[in-house]
Amino acid sequence: MHQFNYHRATSVADAAALATKNADAKILGGGQSLVAALKLRLAAPTDLVDLAGIKDLAGIKVEGNNIVIGAMTRHAEVAASKDVKARIPALASLVSSIGDRMVRNMGTIGGSIANNDPAADYPAAVLGLGATITTNKRKIAADDFFKGMYETALAAGEIITSVSFPIPKKAAYMKFRNPASRFAIVGAFVADTGGGVRVAITGAGPGVFRVAEMEKALASKWAPESVASVVVPASKLNTDLHASAEYRSHLIAVMARRAVEAARG
């Protein structure tokens, strides 16, 4: 691990000032990805700004037709939340499948989506439900937030404060997981938001993405067979030691079909 200066921020403004002042600073949320990268010497920030002391960044509340989750809310809290289970059970189910017990008790929603690992689960829910990400500077629609592998729309000194999830008419998430890491080799989140159908895929490509052809088919008929024959070209997908692009292409249709079936209840 490289040497760095540690700062425990007392407020969002304090954290933003520290991050802006130090160009090579990193924001620490739950630390489940960043700490591992530090240990492997894959990350070398000059400063580490810890958000754990900012109590206002944690919590879950219902606001109208939305569930609003603070950026520092742990995965385990979301999975166990009565409000989330009652209003967006697909989200509670997705979060309960993240990593292992330790990861769920330490990892945070803000840290997950800010890191934007291409195989992470949370980005699928954020994009699949059309959530809104609130930062200390602005509100960002899910469609504008994820930019590519480990890339987001966040600017320097910009910190996620909460994520607002619209409550859908129906939704479900299914993934083919890596048995060791439990990351998604392919995961599919499907949702009928009432204002339209959304299908978000994680694990398959350089980042989470929507499948317009599946959305159109489900808008016409919400049934597993509507997505079964839709093929996402392998040329757009990842090949690694876990699965080939061709296999991931096959899994997208399988996981989407299973998610649609699950959402039917």
Fold and architecture overview:
The protein has 265 residues and is an alpha+beta fold. It has two domains: 5-166, Uridine Diphospho-n-acetylenolpyruvylglucosamine Reductase, domain 3, CATH 3.30.465; 170-264, Enolase-like, domain 1 (2-Layer Sandwich). The chain is built from twelve helices and 14 strands. A five-stranded antiparallel β-sheet has the order 4-5-10-6-7. It has a four-stranded antiparallel β-sheet with strand order 11-12-13-14, sandwiched between helices.
Assigned CATH class of the largest domain: Alpha Beta
First-residue to last-residue Cα separation:
48 Å
Strand content: 15-25%
Which value, in Å, is the CA radius of gyration?
A: 18 Å
- As for the number of domains, it is 2
The order of strands across the largest sheet is 4-5-10-6-7
**Topology order in helix (H) and strand (E) letters:** EHEHEEEHHHHHHEEHEEEEEEEHHH
Largest sheet: 5 strands, antiparallel
Shape: globular
What is the total tally of β strands? Answer: 14
Give the second-level CATH assignment, the architecture of the largest domain. Answer: 2-Layer Sandwich
Q: Mean pLDDT, rounded to whole units?
A: 94
How large is the count of helical segments? 12
In the CATH hierarchy, the third-tier topology of the largest domain is known as: Uridine Diphospho-n-acetylenolpyruvylglucosamine Reductase, domain 3
State the secondary-structure class: alpha+beta
Helix content: 25-40%
User: Which ranges are low-confidence, i.e. pLDDT below 50, for 5 or more consecutive residues?
Assistant: none
